[in-house]
Write a structure and sequence with these properties.
single chain; 232 residues; alpha/beta; six-stranded parallel beta sheet
Length: 232
């Protein structure tokens, strides 16, 4: 619930949140987006909301226009849950519509499938080079070797969600060094993980205060044009 997110987040020292959900059927898209927008409006400035799209929608353009009109700031996709391959030519319209307009947060990786294999995202980014993407879970959940083997262009960011409890410490440091700390956003994947535990684990990385602050909130504020907790 919103209440439990805020309670746990407050305990971890978090005061701004990107909230989102994903539609597993096309008919869920607009109700999910309206719900997220409503919670953003009630949050008193604590929430930034991402809506969702579904590749099988008969009105992708209409879905996106409503999402934007609701004040949502990006799009969440989960290829494994939504059952599509990132680079399937039938679904490229989603990226075309978002290019230059909204960032996309995309679930990446899973050793059990290749729907969200980093090589597929790389293929999309070669077509839509004006698209901004946040590649979740260090760019390849539970398949981080794939992420390292298929580095993304500079307009792809990475987040730390659902990763630090499992990924080897030295691989995290290698990814920060390889991709650049300016491209990482701290994330928790609540309620999968405790925000307080995610912060605690993140602080074990030997980055120094400046880089920690950059990843914990500086890069996010820069990406979304935020200053001192308020929209510029």
């Amino acid at each position: 619930t919103v209440e439990s997110l805020l309670e746990e987040g407050d305990g971890a020292g978090i005061d701004r949140y990107l909230v989102q959900s994903v539609a597993v059927t096309a008919k869920q898209v607009r109700s999910i987006n309206r719900y997220i927008a409503g919670e953003v409006e009630k949050s008193g400035g604590k929430f930034i909301g991402f809506g969702t799209l579904h590749p099988d929608s008969e009105d992708l353009e209409g879905d996106l226009e409503e999402l934007i009109s609701l004040g949502l700031r990006g799009v969440k996709l989960h290829p494994d849950m939504q059952n599509f391959k990132i680079d399937d030519y039938r679904y490229l319209k989603m990226y075309e519509l978002c290019e230059g307009r909204l960032p996309m947060l995309i679930h990446m990786g899973d050793a059990r499938s290749d729907f969200s294999h980093p090589k597929r995202l790389r293929a999309v980014m070669e077509i839509y080079d004006g698209l901004t993407v946040i590649a979740a879970h260090f760019g390849g959940w539970n398949a981080w070797d794939r992420s390292l083997a298929h580095p993304q262009p500079e307009n792809v960011f990475y987040d730390t969600s659902s990763t630090t409890p499992m990924i080897p410490h030295d691989m995290v440091m290698r990814m920060f060094e390889t991709f650049g700390p300016e491209r990482f956003l701290f994330g928790t994947d609540f309620p999968m993980w405790s925000p307080e535990e995610m912060v605690r684990q993140f602080l074990t990385y030997d980055l120094g205060d400046s880089l920690r602050e950059q990843i914990l909130y500086g890069n996010f504020m820069r990406l979304f044009g935020l200053s001192d907790g308020q929209d510029e």
